Protein backbone atom coordinates (compact mmCIF):
# COMPACT_ATOMS: atom_id res chain seq x y z
CA UNK A 1 0.00 0.00 0.00
CA UNK A 2 2.06 2.92 -1.26
CA UNK A 3 0.76 5.82 -3.34
CA UNK A 4 4.07 7.61 -3.85
CA UNK A 5 3.99 7.09 -7.60
CA UNK A 6 6.76 9.50 -8.59
CA UNK A 7 10.28 9.90 -7.21
CA UNK A 8 10.80 12.98 -5.07
CA UNK A 9 11.94 15.95 -7.16
CA UNK A 10 14.31 18.48 -5.61
CA UNK A 11 14.21 21.97 -7.16
CA UNK A 12 17.11 24.36 -6.60
CA UNK A 13 15.68 27.81 -5.85
CA UNK A 14 19.11 29.41 -5.85
CA UNK A 15 21.11 31.37 -3.32
CA UNK A 16 19.34 33.94 -1.19
CA UNK A 17 21.49 36.13 1.07
CA UNK A 18 24.21 33.50 1.22
CA UNK A 19 21.80 30.61 1.85
CA UNK A 20 21.14 27.84 -0.68
CA UNK A 21 17.41 27.11 -0.79
CA UNK A 22 16.08 23.80 -2.13
CA UNK A 23 12.45 22.76 -2.50
CA UNK A 24 11.43 19.13 -1.98
CA UNK A 25 8.46 18.70 -4.33
CA UNK A 26 6.39 16.30 -2.26
CA UNK A 27 3.25 17.73 -3.88
CA UNK A 28 4.16 15.84 -7.06
CA UNK A 29 4.29 12.35 -5.59
CA UNK A 30 0.64 11.55 -6.38
CA UNK A 31 -2.04 13.50 -8.28
CA UNK A 32 -4.78 12.87 -5.71
CA UNK A 33 -2.92 12.08 -2.50
CA UNK A 34 0.01 14.49 -2.58
CA UNK A 35 2.57 15.31 0.01
CA UNK A 36 2.23 14.91 3.72
CA UNK A 37 -1.44 13.90 3.64
CA UNK A 38 -0.66 10.47 2.21
CA UNK A 39 2.41 10.09 4.40
CA UNK A 40 0.28 10.72 7.50
CA UNK A 41 -2.42 8.31 6.32
CA UNK A 42 -0.17 5.42 5.29
CA UNK A 43 0.35 3.68 8.63
CA UNK A 44 -3.06 4.68 9.97
CA UNK A 45 -4.62 2.77 7.08
CA UNK A 46 -2.52 -0.26 7.91
CA UNK A 47 -3.75 -0.07 11.50
CA UNK A 48 -7.36 0.23 10.33
CA UNK A 49 -6.84 -2.96 8.31
CA UNK A 50 -5.34 -4.72 11.32
CA UNK A 51 -8.37 -3.78 13.40
CA UNK A 52 -10.78 -4.83 10.68
CA UNK A 53 -12.34 -1.36 10.38
CA UNK A 54 -13.36 -0.52 6.82
CA UNK A 55 -14.76 2.93 7.65
CA UNK A 56 -12.57 5.99 8.19
CA UNK A 57 -14.02 8.79 10.33
CA UNK A 58 -12.33 12.16 10.62
CA UNK A 59 -12.75 15.90 11.17
CA UNK A 60 -11.91 19.15 9.45
CA UNK A 61 -12.87 22.65 8.45
CA UNK A 62 -14.71 23.54 5.27
CA UNK A 63 -11.52 23.77 3.17
CA UNK A 64 -9.60 20.99 4.89
CA UNK A 65 -6.86 19.32 2.83
CA UNK A 66 -7.13 16.43 5.27
CA UNK A 67 -10.83 15.84 4.58
CA UNK A 68 -10.11 15.94 0.85
CA UNK A 69 -7.24 13.44 1.22
CA UNK A 70 -9.23 10.98 3.36
CA UNK A 71 -12.13 11.10 0.89
CA UNK A 72 -9.76 10.47 -2.03
CA UNK A 73 -8.06 7.62 -0.16
CA UNK A 74 -11.47 6.09 0.52
CA UNK A 75 -12.38 6.12 -3.16
CA UNK A 76 -9.00 4.80 -4.30
CA UNK A 77 -8.85 2.03 -1.69
CA UNK A 78 -12.52 1.11 -1.46
CA UNK A 79 -13.10 2.44 2.08
CA UNK A 80 -16.21 4.07 3.44
CA UNK A 81 -15.39 7.58 4.71
CA UNK A 82 -17.19 9.92 7.08
CA UNK A 83 -16.24 13.54 7.61
CA UNK A 84 -17.44 15.78 10.44
CA UNK A 85 -17.19 19.39 9.30
CA UNK A 86 -16.81 22.33 11.67
CA UNK A 87 -19.73 24.76 11.47
CA UNK A 88 -23.44 24.98 10.71
CA UNK A 89 -24.61 23.05 7.65
CA UNK A 90 -26.66 25.93 6.25
CA UNK A 91 -23.59 28.16 6.30
CA UNK A 92 -21.88 25.71 3.94
CA UNK A 93 -24.67 25.55 1.35
CA UNK A 94 -24.02 25.26 -1.49
CA UNK A 95 -21.00 23.10 -0.79
CA UNK A 96 -17.67 24.69 -1.58
CA UNK A 97 -15.39 22.88 -4.10
CA UNK A 98 -13.45 21.03 -1.36
CA UNK A 99 -16.55 19.59 0.32
CA UNK A 100 -18.28 18.93 -3.01
CA UNK A 101 -15.27 16.94 -4.17
CA UNK A 102 -15.16 15.00 -0.90
CA UNK A 103 -18.81 14.07 -1.32
CA UNK A 104 -18.20 13.07 -4.95
CA UNK A 105 -15.39 10.84 -3.67
CA UNK A 106 -17.95 9.11 -1.48
CA UNK A 107 -17.46 10.84 1.87
CA UNK A 108 -20.59 11.13 4.02
CA UNK A 109 -20.53 14.68 5.39
CA UNK A 110 -21.93 15.65 8.79
CA UNK A 111 -21.79 19.12 10.30
CA UNK A 112 -21.02 19.94 13.92
CA UNK A 113 -21.69 23.20 15.69
CA UNK A 114 -18.48 24.83 16.88
CA UNK A 115 -19.03 24.02 20.55
CA UNK A 116 -19.48 20.29 19.86
CA UNK A 117 -16.57 20.37 17.41
CA UNK A 118 -14.28 21.75 20.11
CA UNK A 119 -15.26 18.78 22.31
CA UNK A 120 -14.90 16.12 19.61
CA UNK A 121 -11.94 14.50 21.37
CA UNK A 122 -13.95 13.87 24.55
CA UNK A 123 -14.87 10.18 24.94
CA UNK A 124 -18.59 10.83 25.45
CA UNK A 125 -18.83 13.08 22.38
CA UNK A 126 -16.86 10.67 20.20
CA UNK A 127 -18.94 7.72 21.39
CA UNK A 128 -22.11 9.57 20.39
CA UNK A 129 -20.71 10.24 16.93
CA UNK A 130 -19.76 6.59 16.49
CA UNK A 131 -23.27 5.51 17.50
CA UNK A 132 -24.48 7.73 14.67
CA UNK A 133 -22.07 6.41 12.05
CA UNK A 134 -21.30 2.87 13.14
CA UNK A 135 -17.87 1.36 13.91
CA UNK A 136 -15.02 3.31 12.35
CA UNK A 137 -11.32 3.98 12.55
CA UNK A 138 -11.03 7.52 13.93
CA UNK A 139 -8.44 9.87 12.47
CA UNK A 140 -7.87 13.15 14.33
CA UNK A 141 -8.21 16.54 12.70
CA UNK A 142 -5.29 17.02 10.33
CA UNK A 143 -4.42 13.33 10.62
CA UNK A 144 -1.82 14.01 13.32
CA UNK A 145 -1.32 11.11 15.71
CA UNK A 146 1.60 8.82 16.53
CA UNK A 147 0.92 6.61 13.49
CA UNK A 148 1.21 9.68 11.24
CA UNK A 149 4.84 10.16 12.25
CA UNK A 150 6.54 7.15 10.57
CA UNK A 151 5.37 8.16 7.09
CA UNK A 152 6.75 11.67 7.53
CA UNK A 153 9.92 10.23 9.05
CA UNK A 154 10.49 8.33 5.80
CA UNK A 155 10.66 11.63 3.93
CA UNK A 156 13.32 12.96 6.29
CA UNK A 157 15.32 9.76 5.91
CA UNK A 158 15.08 9.92 2.12
CA UNK A 159 16.35 13.50 2.15
CA UNK A 160 19.21 12.63 4.49
CA UNK A 161 20.25 9.85 2.14
CA UNK A 162 20.21 12.13 -0.91
CA UNK A 163 21.29 15.58 0.24
CA UNK A 164 23.77 17.37 2.45
CA UNK A 165 21.70 20.07 4.12
CA UNK A 166 21.63 22.06 7.34
CA UNK A 167 17.94 22.85 7.93
CA UNK A 168 14.72 21.05 6.97
CA UNK A 169 11.68 23.35 6.95
CA UNK A 170 7.94 22.71 6.76
CA UNK A 171 4.68 24.56 7.37
CA UNK A 172 2.67 23.53 10.46
CA UNK A 173 -0.95 23.48 11.57
CA UNK A 174 -1.35 20.46 13.85
CA UNK A 175 2.37 19.68 14.11
CA UNK A 176 2.24 16.06 12.99
CA UNK A 177 4.40 16.49 9.91
CA UNK A 178 7.13 18.36 11.78
CA UNK A 179 7.02 15.78 14.59
CA UNK A 180 7.46 12.99 12.06
CA UNK A 181 10.35 14.76 10.37
CA UNK A 182 12.04 15.16 13.77
CA UNK A 183 11.83 11.42 14.41
CA UNK A 184 13.26 10.77 10.95
CA UNK A 185 16.12 13.20 11.47
CA UNK A 186 16.82 11.54 14.83
CA UNK A 187 18.80 14.54 16.05
CA UNK A 188 20.69 15.07 12.78
CA UNK A 189 20.51 18.50 11.14
CA UNK A 190 18.02 21.12 12.30
CA UNK A 191 14.31 21.44 11.60
CA UNK A 192 12.18 24.55 11.38
CA UNK A 193 8.42 24.85 11.38
CA UNK A 194 6.46 27.86 10.15
CA UNK A 195 3.03 28.01 11.79
CA UNK A 196 0.16 28.63 9.38
CA UNK A 197 -2.22 29.74 12.13
CA UNK A 198 -2.27 32.55 14.65
CA UNK A 199 -1.58 31.85 18.32
CA UNK A 200 0.31 28.63 17.60
CA UNK A 201 2.66 28.60 20.60
CA UNK A 202 0.76 25.53 21.89
CA UNK A 203 2.21 23.53 18.97
CA UNK A 204 5.57 23.28 20.73
CA UNK A 205 4.03 21.17 23.47
CA UNK A 206 1.94 19.16 20.99
CA UNK A 207 4.99 18.33 18.87
CA UNK A 208 7.04 17.29 21.88
CA UNK A 209 4.16 15.14 23.10
CA UNK A 210 3.83 13.41 19.72
CA UNK A 211 7.53 12.58 19.44
CA UNK A 212 7.60 11.38 23.06
CA UNK A 213 4.62 9.11 22.50
CA UNK A 214 6.00 7.76 19.21
CA UNK A 215 9.66 7.24 20.11
CA UNK A 216 10.12 7.93 23.79
CA UNK A 217 12.21 11.00 22.92
CA UNK A 218 11.87 14.73 22.57
CA UNK A 219 14.30 16.67 20.42
CA UNK A 220 16.13 19.96 20.81
CA UNK A 221 17.23 20.41 17.18
CA UNK A 222 14.22 22.41 16.02
CA UNK A 223 12.39 25.71 16.25
CA UNK A 224 8.88 26.94 15.54
CA UNK A 225 8.25 30.34 13.95
CA UNK A 226 4.86 31.79 14.79
CA UNK A 227 5.30 35.18 13.09
CA UNK A 228 4.46 34.29 9.48
CA UNK A 229 0.80 33.28 9.80
CA UNK A 230 -0.27 36.16 7.56
CA UNK A 231 -3.31 37.04 9.64
CA UNK A 232 -4.41 33.54 10.63
CA UNK A 233 -5.25 30.14 9.25
CA UNK A 234 -6.55 30.24 5.66
CA UNK A 235 -6.08 34.00 5.57
CA UNK A 236 -4.53 35.22 2.33
CA UNK A 237 -3.27 38.78 2.56
CA UNK A 238 -2.63 40.83 -0.58
CA UNK A 239 1.08 40.73 0.28
CA UNK A 240 1.12 36.93 0.47
CA UNK A 241 -0.91 36.56 -2.72
CA UNK A 242 1.53 38.79 -4.58
CA UNK A 243 4.46 36.83 -3.17
CA UNK A 244 2.94 33.59 -4.48
CA UNK A 245 2.35 35.16 -7.90
CA UNK A 246 5.94 36.44 -8.04
CA UNK A 247 7.31 33.08 -6.86
CA UNK A 248 5.43 31.22 -9.58
CA UNK A 249 6.63 33.62 -12.25
CA UNK A 250 10.24 33.31 -11.06
CA UNK A 251 10.40 29.56 -10.44
CA UNK A 252 7.44 28.06 -12.31
CA UNK A 253 6.11 26.49 -9.10
CA UNK A 254 2.67 27.15 -7.62
CA UNK A 255 2.56 27.39 -3.83
CA UNK A 256 -0.64 26.83 -1.89
CA UNK A 257 -2.28 29.76 -0.05
CA UNK A 258 -2.61 28.10 3.37
CA UNK A 259 0.75 26.43 4.02
CA UNK A 260 3.66 26.53 1.59
CA UNK A 261 3.11 30.15 0.58
CA UNK A 262 3.66 31.19 4.18
CA UNK A 263 6.57 28.76 4.54
CA UNK A 264 8.54 30.17 1.60
CA UNK A 265 7.66 33.77 2.48
CA UNK A 266 8.97 33.16 5.98
CA UNK A 267 12.14 31.37 4.90
CA UNK A 268 13.13 34.09 2.44
CA UNK A 269 12.47 36.78 5.04
CA UNK A 270 14.54 34.89 7.63
CA UNK A 271 17.38 34.51 5.12
CA UNK A 272 17.30 38.25 4.41
CA UNK A 273 17.50 38.93 8.16
CA UNK A 274 20.55 36.69 8.60
CA UNK A 275 18.75 34.00 10.57
CA UNK A 276 20.63 31.21 8.77
CA UNK A 277 24.39 30.85 8.71
CA UNK A 278 25.90 32.01 5.43
CA UNK A 279 26.82 29.04 3.26
CA UNK A 280 24.14 26.83 4.78
CA UNK A 281 21.57 24.82 2.80
CA UNK A 282 17.88 24.93 3.70
CA UNK A 283 15.44 22.36 2.31
CA UNK A 284 11.80 23.45 2.29
CA UNK A 285 9.04 20.87 1.78
CA UNK A 286 6.14 21.57 -0.57
CA UNK A 287 3.43 19.55 1.14
CA UNK A 288 0.72 20.04 -1.48
CA UNK A 289 -2.64 21.55 -0.61
CA UNK A 290 -3.15 23.16 -4.01
CA UNK A 291 -6.82 22.20 -3.93
CA UNK A 292 -7.23 25.05 -1.42
CA UNK A 293 -7.03 27.60 -4.25
CA UNK A 294 -10.63 26.71 -5.11
CA UNK A 295 -11.65 28.53 -1.93
CA UNK A 296 -9.75 31.68 -2.91
CA UNK A 297 -11.30 32.27 -6.30
CA UNK A 298 -8.94 30.01 -8.22
CA UNK A 299 -5.22 30.08 -8.81
CA UNK A 300 -3.51 33.48 -8.75
CA UNK A 301 -1.84 35.26 -11.61
Automatic annotation (TrEMBL):
<keyword id="KW-0663">Pyridoxal phosphate</keyword>
<comment type="similarity">
    <text>Belongs to the ACC deaminase/D-cysteine desulfhydrase family.</text>
</comment>
<dbReference type="InterPro" id="IPR036052">
    <property type="entry name" value="TrpB-like_PALP_sf"/>
</dbReference>
<feature type="active site" description="Nucleophile">
    <location>
        <position position="64"/>
    </location>
</feature>
<protein>
    <submittedName>
        <fullName>Pyridoxal-phosphate dependent enzyme</fullName>
    </submittedName>
</protein>
<dbReference type="GO" id="GO:0019148">
    <property type="term" value="F:D-cysteine desulfhydrase activity"/>
</dbReference>
<dbReference type="InterPro" id="IPR027278">
    <property type="entry name" value="ACCD_DCysDesulf"/>
</dbReference>
<feature type="domain" description="Tryptophan synthase beta chain-like PALP">
    <location>
        <begin position="11"/>
        <end position="288"/>
    </location>
</feature>
<feature type="modified residue" description="N6-(pyridoxal phosphate)lysine">
    <location>
        <position position="37"/>
    </location>
</feature>
<dbReference type="Pfam" id="PF00291">
    <property type="entry name" value="PALP"/>
</dbReference>
<dbReference type="InterPro" id="IPR001926">
    <property type="entry name" value="TrpB-like_PALP"/>
</dbReference>
Amino acid sequence: MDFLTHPLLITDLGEHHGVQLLLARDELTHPELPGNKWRKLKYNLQEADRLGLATLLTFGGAYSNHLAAVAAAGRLLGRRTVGFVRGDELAHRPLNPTLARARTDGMALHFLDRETYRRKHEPAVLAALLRETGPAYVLPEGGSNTLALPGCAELAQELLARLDFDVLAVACATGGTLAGLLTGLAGQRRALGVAALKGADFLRDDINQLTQQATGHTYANWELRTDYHGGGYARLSPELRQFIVDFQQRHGILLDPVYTGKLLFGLLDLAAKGHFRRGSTVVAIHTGGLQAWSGFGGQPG
